[in-house]
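Progress report, Aim 2. The chain analyzed during this reporting quarter is listed below.
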Amino acid sequence: MVKKIATPLTDACIKELKAGDIVLLSGKILVARDAAHKRLVEAMKAGKAPFDVKDATIFYAGPAPTPPGAVIGPIGPTTSYRMDPYTPYLLEHGLKGMIGKGRRSPEVLASIKKNTAVYFGATGGTSVLLASSVVSAEKVAYEDLGPETVLRLEVKDMPLVVLADCSGGNLYGDL
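Predicted C-alpha coordinates for the chain:
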Protein backbone atom coordinates (compact mmCIF):
# COMPACT_ATOMS: atom_id res chain seq x y z
CA MET A 1 0.00 0.00 0.00
CA VAL A 2 1.32 3.43 -0.95
CA LYS A 3 1.12 6.13 1.74
CA LYS A 4 0.46 9.73 0.74
CA ILE A 5 2.26 12.11 3.09
CA ALA A 6 3.04 15.82 3.12
CA THR A 7 5.61 18.21 4.49
CA PRO A 8 6.19 19.49 7.02
CA LEU A 9 6.51 15.99 8.45
CA THR A 10 5.08 15.61 11.95
CA ASP A 11 6.34 13.24 14.62
CA ALA A 12 3.04 11.34 14.38
CA CYS A 13 3.48 10.84 10.62
CA ILE A 14 7.11 9.82 11.00
CA LYS A 15 6.30 7.29 13.74
CA GLU A 16 3.85 5.54 11.39
CA LEU A 17 6.48 5.06 8.67
CA LYS A 18 8.43 1.81 8.56
CA ALA A 19 11.47 0.79 6.52
CA GLY A 20 10.23 -0.54 3.19
CA ASP A 21 7.09 1.63 3.05
CA ILE A 22 6.42 3.27 -0.31
CA VAL A 23 5.30 6.88 -0.06
CA LEU A 24 4.20 9.71 -2.31
CA LEU A 25 5.56 12.93 -0.79
CA SER A 26 3.99 16.33 -1.43
CA GLY A 27 4.84 19.79 -0.11
CA LYS A 28 7.94 21.95 0.26
CA ILE A 29 11.41 20.38 0.43
CA LEU A 30 14.94 21.74 0.28
CA VAL A 31 17.61 20.52 -2.13
CA ALA A 32 21.21 20.54 -0.90
CA ARG A 33 24.39 18.50 -1.34
CA ASP A 34 27.61 18.23 0.66
CA ALA A 35 29.19 21.65 -0.04
CA ALA A 36 25.95 23.37 0.96
CA HIS A 37 25.64 21.17 4.07
CA LYS A 38 29.15 22.11 5.18
CA ARG A 39 28.48 25.81 4.69
CA LEU A 40 25.06 25.61 6.35
CA VAL A 41 26.37 23.89 9.50
CA GLU A 42 29.20 26.44 9.75
CA ALA A 43 26.66 29.29 9.38
CA MET A 44 24.32 27.74 11.96
CA LYS A 45 27.16 27.42 14.47
CA ALA A 46 27.99 31.11 13.86
CA GLY A 47 24.33 32.12 14.30
CA LYS A 48 24.06 33.19 10.64
CA ALA A 49 21.99 30.48 8.96
CA PRO A 50 20.25 31.71 5.77
CA PHE A 51 17.22 29.50 6.53
CA ASP A 52 15.85 27.30 9.32
CA VAL A 53 16.02 23.50 9.08
CA LYS A 54 13.37 22.97 11.76
CA ASP A 55 10.75 20.54 10.40
CA ALA A 56 12.45 20.58 6.98
CA THR A 57 13.06 17.73 4.55
CA ILE A 58 16.24 17.86 2.47
CA PHE A 59 16.65 16.10 -0.89
CA TYR A 60 20.30 15.29 -1.56
CA ALA A 61 20.36 16.14 -5.26
CA GLY A 62 21.77 18.41 -7.90
CA PRO A 63 19.42 19.11 -10.78
CA ALA A 64 20.58 19.21 -14.37
CA PRO A 65 20.09 22.51 -16.24
CA THR A 66 16.45 23.49 -16.61
CA PRO A 67 15.14 23.11 -20.16
CA PRO A 68 13.11 26.00 -21.62
CA GLY A 69 9.55 25.96 -20.30
CA ALA A 70 10.28 23.42 -17.54
CA VAL A 71 10.16 24.01 -13.78
CA ILE A 72 13.42 22.14 -13.22
CA GLY A 73 15.83 19.87 -15.09
CA PRO A 74 16.14 16.17 -14.38
CA ILE A 75 16.84 15.74 -10.66
CA GLY A 76 18.09 12.52 -9.13
CA PRO A 77 19.42 11.55 -5.71
CA THR A 78 23.09 11.77 -4.81
CA THR A 79 24.93 9.43 -2.45
CA SER A 80 23.80 10.27 1.07
CA TYR A 81 26.86 9.24 3.07
CA ARG A 82 28.61 12.43 1.90
CA MET A 83 26.18 14.36 4.14
CA ASP A 84 26.74 12.07 7.16
CA PRO A 85 29.31 14.37 8.89
CA TYR A 86 26.66 17.12 9.05
CA THR A 87 23.44 15.16 9.47
CA PRO A 88 23.39 14.53 13.25
CA TYR A 89 23.87 18.27 13.88
CA LEU A 90 21.02 19.14 11.51
CA LEU A 91 18.75 16.50 13.06
CA GLU A 92 19.49 17.94 16.53
CA HIS A 93 18.30 21.30 15.16
CA GLY A 94 14.98 19.99 13.88
CA LEU A 95 15.56 18.43 10.45
CA LYS A 96 12.84 15.79 10.01
CA GLY A 97 13.41 14.12 6.65
CA MET A 98 16.17 13.32 4.20
CA ILE A 99 15.93 11.98 0.64
CA GLY A 100 18.88 10.34 -1.08
CA LYS A 101 20.36 6.98 -1.94
CA GLY A 102 22.65 4.52 -0.21
CA ARG A 103 23.54 3.46 3.30
CA ARG A 104 23.92 5.84 6.25
CA SER A 105 26.48 5.69 9.04
CA PRO A 106 25.61 4.16 12.43
CA GLU A 107 25.79 7.70 13.90
CA VAL A 108 23.19 9.00 11.44
CA LEU A 109 20.91 5.98 12.01
CA ALA A 110 21.11 6.54 15.79
CA SER A 111 20.36 10.25 15.31
CA ILE A 112 17.34 9.46 13.10
CA LYS A 113 15.97 7.32 15.92
CA LYS A 114 16.83 9.82 18.69
CA ASN A 115 15.33 12.81 16.86
CA THR A 116 12.22 11.15 15.37
CA ALA A 117 13.26 11.61 11.76
CA VAL A 118 13.10 9.56 8.57
CA TYR A 119 15.42 8.78 5.66
CA PHE A 120 13.77 8.19 2.29
CA GLY A 121 15.31 6.66 -0.80
CA ALA A 122 14.71 7.96 -4.29
CA THR A 123 15.63 5.54 -7.02
CA GLY A 124 18.69 6.60 -8.97
CA GLY A 125 18.30 6.79 -12.74
CA THR A 126 14.78 8.19 -12.53
CA SER A 127 15.69 11.86 -12.60
CA VAL A 128 13.17 12.73 -15.32
CA LEU A 129 10.36 11.02 -13.35
CA LEU A 130 11.38 12.81 -10.14
CA ALA A 131 11.51 16.15 -11.97
CA SER A 132 7.92 15.61 -13.07
CA SER A 133 6.94 15.71 -9.36
CA VAL A 134 8.33 19.25 -8.99
CA VAL A 135 5.64 21.94 -9.07
CA SER A 136 7.92 24.92 -8.34
CA ALA A 137 11.56 25.69 -7.64
CA GLU A 138 13.28 28.70 -6.10
CA LYS A 139 16.87 29.46 -5.08
CA VAL A 140 17.30 29.79 -1.31
CA ALA A 141 21.04 30.12 -0.58
CA TYR A 142 24.61 29.69 -1.82
CA GLU A 143 24.06 30.51 -5.50
CA ASP A 144 27.85 30.67 -5.89
CA LEU A 145 27.89 26.86 -5.53
CA GLY A 146 26.31 26.48 -8.97
CA PRO A 147 24.65 23.06 -9.15
CA GLU A 148 24.93 22.83 -5.34
CA THR A 149 22.82 25.95 -4.78
CA VAL A 150 20.23 25.29 -2.08
CA LEU A 151 16.77 25.18 -3.64
CA ARG A 152 13.27 25.06 -2.19
CA LEU A 153 10.99 22.83 -4.24
CA GLU A 154 7.31 22.22 -4.06
CA VAL A 155 6.67 18.61 -4.97
CA LYS A 156 3.52 16.60 -5.63
CA ASP A 157 3.46 12.84 -5.19
CA MET A 158 7.24 12.32 -5.35
CA PRO A 159 7.71 8.52 -5.25
CA LEU A 160 10.02 7.43 -2.40
CA VAL A 161 10.81 4.44 -0.20
CA VAL A 162 11.47 4.64 3.54
CA LEU A 163 15.06 3.43 3.97
CA ALA A 164 15.49 4.16 7.71
CA ASP A 165 12.72 4.83 10.22
CA CYS A 166 12.67 6.35 13.70
CA SER A 167 12.13 2.93 15.32
CA GLY A 168 15.51 1.68 14.13
CA GLY A 169 14.24 -0.06 11.01
CA ASN A 170 16.86 0.05 8.26
CA LEU A 171 16.08 -1.38 4.83
CA TYR A 172 19.80 -1.85 4.12
CA GLY A 173 20.33 -3.62 7.45
CA ASP A 174 17.32 -5.84 6.84
CA LEU A 175 18.50 -7.16 3.45
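The CA atoms of residues 43 and 49 lie 5 Å apart. Strands lie at 2-6, 22-31, 57-59, 97-100, 118-121, 134-141, 150-164. These observations will guide the mutagenesis work planned for the next reporting period.
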